[in-house]
Amino acid sequence: MVAMTDHISGIEGRGRYRALVLRRLVLIFCLIGALFASVAVDMALGPANYPLADVLTALFRPDTVSDQLRVVIWDIRMPIALMAVTVGASLSVAGAQMQTILANPLASPFTLGISAAAGFGAALGLVAGVAVFPVAVQYMVPINAFLMAMLAALFIHFASTMRGVTVETIVLLGIALVFTFNAALSLLEYLASEQALAAVVFWTMGSLTKATWPKVWITGAVLLFALPLFARHAWALTALRLGDDKAASFGINVRRLRLEAMMTVSLLAAIPVSFVGTIGFVGLVAPHIARMLVGEDQRFFLPASVLCGALLLSVTSVVSKMLIPGAVLPIGVITALVGVPFFFVLIFTNRRRAW
Amino acid sequence: MVSLTLEKVGATYGRRTVLSDVNTGVLRGGGLTAVIGPNAAGKSTLFKRIASLTSGPGTVHLSDTAKGTEGICYMPQDTGANAVLTVYESVLLSAKQGSGWKVKDSELSEIDRVLSELRIADLAFRGLGELSGGQRQLVSIAQALVRKPEVLLMDEPTSALDLFRQIEVLGFMKRLSAQSGMAVLIALHDLNHALRYCDDTIVIGGGSVLASGPTHEVITADMLRSVYRVEARVEACSMGRPVVIVDESL
């Protein structure tokens, strides 16, 4: 063995690394536990005040409870609670991967204009009945939202690959997209009928109350489609954080990886937004919370992002039901109010680097 | 022992040609080859072209290789300082590319070995963002070595290191290369390091090869005048080693 000098340090890294992995796994299992607890509380809360024991019975032995209780738990509360989980997870993973592939801590579907583009696409369908791509009427809104989101994502992607375009330029382009699509959305709102305007306002406030089982399945399916793709590239995506040259030197086709990831991210960001409206905070902050907890090795960062996003939106769903008894406040409004104090606590108490 | 030959190698960025008609003799493993030249001469581009990270005409011939082009490893000038990763994780990352999630004990032992060899085991669980430029350069070398390359292309690996570490790293690479048969090409600005550690030297300027051959034949007063525009002498020091003494710029 050749060494730089005769002295070789006796520090054993293998054991310390195994301990680090164990600590991260424990953190991830804690997040899973917290998420289950939050979802249970979310399902127990609602205008109809059922005791927790009845809710649990309805969950695990639905044939033994009244039809009314079964319908309330299974057809109203559970879709809302699970929609919070799938939407939160989707937006968080989308934000995490945008921050990774653009090497930008400010990147998220919201700050780079992808959510705004999706919202505008949906509003085009809701207000003007315009389909960006000719499809059946019932699919027009989500397809519009997805295509507009993908256009915005592609624009950001190609801009980021141009010579001389810096990280700051990308953020500025994203902000320009947000303003452009918001202005176009306002114009549509101005021209909209009363009914269409109500539907568009639903978008801009973000709400889980119209969650249904098909929407939960679709959002969950998109998430289940995206996660294995990201998981397959876990080492490569982590390497992107070392810079393009370094990642390429590891044998990674950086351009193709970035394009694939961006396509998947646009799908992840667009579908939830098309169902629940604009929810801005989760995609930006949940990945940072995950990063502070487990670092940026995607084998841990990816599941932690899923769980942090899901937990943040699930807790927000709980809070939105508790703030004013009997009323469910729009979740898009509450998300930041719940998340910001928690995020501040993490930033000020965590001595490790957050980016 | 691996050997490398470049035949009419060029590189292009879009329509712009940044490197053309680079030919070399047979560059054999077991020693260091310096790649020198002024700033923006095309040294990094040559490395990227050899590692197939950029496109261009010509052929890179490899012989007596077990891994083929997979065995070529390019080590860029710096490694990302913003990543929220420990040194250990960043080296593991290099070793695990293209493989599964599970990390074997033997892979971790290899990382321990490389970090110990480079005497940075004490940095293993520090974040990349906490390191100095020089420490990051050593981590970058660890990331390259853990891949067990047959041809290692090091882009200014000592630029941020203090004098002690420069000597230590170059001496280590020379011994490692001799022991493993690895071919190591090193972009250097310090010509005295090239004279002391490198058997062969390639001079790049304006995107083409200006001179190549045994180091003591390539680094001459004439070459320094024409390539670097300095008036300089190459003389033997008190220990008999050749050194470059710069008198003035032209």
Short summary of the structure?
The complex is a heterodimer of chains A (355) and B (250). With 355 residues, chain A is mostly helical.
Compressed to H and E, one letter per element, the order of chain A equals HHHHHHHHHHHHHH
Overall strand count of chain A: 0
Q: What's the CATH architecture name of chain A?
A: Orthogonal Bundle
Could you say which overall geometry of chain A the principal axes of the C-alpha atoms support? globular
Structure classification of chain B: alpha/beta
Fourth CATH level, the homologous superfamily of the largest domain in chain B: P-loop containing nucleotide triphosphate hydrolases
Number of alpha- plus pi-helical segments of chain B: 8
Total DSSP E strands of chain B: 13
User: What is the CATH C level class of the largest domain in chain B, in words?
Assistant: Alpha Beta
Work out the helicity level of chain A: over 70%
Major sheet characteristics of chain B: 6 strands, mixed
**What are the secondary-structure elements of chain B, in order, as H or E?**
EEEEEHEEHHHEHEHEEHHEE
What shape does the CA trace of chain B take?
globular
CATH fold node name of the largest domain in chain B: Rossmann fold
The low-pLDDT segments of chain A are: 6-10
Which parts of chain B are unreliable, with pLDDT below 50 for 5 consecutive residues or more? none
Descriptive notes:
- Chain A has helices at residues 13-44, 52-60, 67-101, 114-128, 137-161, 167-191, 194-205, 213-232, 234-240, 244-249, 254-276, 281-294, 298-322, 331-349.
- With 355 residues, chain A is an all-alpha fold.
- Chain A has a single domain (49-349), classed as ABC transporter involved in vitamin B12 uptake, BtuC (Orthogonal Bundle).
- Chain A is globular and about 65 Å long.
- The two termini of chain A are 37 Å apart.
- Mean pLDDT of chain A is 86; it is low at 6-10.
- Chain B is α/β, with parallel strands linked by helices.
- Chain B has two domains: 3-219, P-loop containing nucleotide triphosphate hydrolases (Rossmann fold, 3-Layer(aba) Sandwich), CATH 3.40.50.300; 220-250, no CATH class.
- Helices cover 32% and strands 28% of the residues of chain B.
- In chain B, the strands form four sheets. In chain B, strands 7-8-9-5-10-11 form a six-stranded mixed β-sheet, sandwiched between helices. Chain B has a three-stranded antiparallel β-sheet with strand order 4-1-6, with no helix packed on it.
- In chain B, strand 8, helix 5 (163-180) and strand 9 (183-187) form a beta-alpha-beta unit.
- In chain B, helix 2 packs across helix 3 and helix 2 runs parallel beside helix 4 (133-145).
- Chain B is globular, with a radius of gyration of 18 Å.
- The N and C termini of chain B lie far apart (42 Å).
- The mean pLDDT of chain B is 91.
- The chains are: A mainly alpha (355), B alpha/beta (250).
